[in-house]
Amino acid sequence: MSSKTVPKESVVSFSEPGARRLTNAWRLADVRRDLLLSVLSLVAILVLWEGAVRVFHLPNYIVPAPIEITRDTFDLGSVVVWHTLATLRTVLLGFLLSVVISLPLAIAITASATAARTIYPALVLLQSVPKVAIAPILIIALGANELPRVVVTFLVAFFPLVVAAATGLQSVPAEFIELWRSLRVSRWKLIWRISLPYAVPFVFGGLKVAIALSVVGAVVGEFVAANQGLGYLIATSMAFFKTPVAWGAMIILSVMGIALFQAVVLVERVFFPWSTNTPLVAG
Known about the structure:
This protein has 10 helices and no strands. By secondary structure, it is mainly α. Helix 3 packs antiparallel against helix 8 (187-224), helix 5 crosses helix 6 and helix 8 runs antiparallel to helix 10 (243-271).
């Protein structure tokens, strides 16, 4: 029985680049499927909402219909865009400030027991203060500008990130730490090479919570004192009984929160694909 030689060209290659392309294709298919399901769910909710308003004759000043919300919100045109960009700027500045301050704090807490005993009580005390109560004090101290709103956003967002990052840095198995210490590796190299990679899933968990809370913090600051932003638009709309506009601003805030959350998820999936199995679209 003679054996036939299979040509090289007919052999399917499973080289590393080919496998990577196949994996990326699967991920893209998952993204498309999740986006389609999300869009269909949103359309179903809007149809049910519109139908409920019309069937039960709900008053406009309590629950307006989605069509009415869309019409009144779009009638404002560039005004809504201006308020949205103002809130987005406050959210991003407060979030970035929380990242810049929280990660070094988490490293300090895990690197030194003395630092942990000193910093943690102060963090818990600061977190326990209602942000609505501290916002007017910040406005008096810092002035009626954007800075108090950024600080309020930071105060709302940073505590979960500190706790998540510190928990991740402390999650390294003890035997790994002992092994590296036996090699006389410096403490900071141990943190950089071992602790931080272990902490990546925890840090991104904290970042997801922080970016969602940043939207809340920005609106809290805008409710207290602001002349721009979606929180300001909601307050002024309700003062003049323009309920559909207020609902439109709330929906924009929700979309903004979802989009920013997905941006953090996307960064994690692209740069740290080994750290999570979280789907690209939440829910």
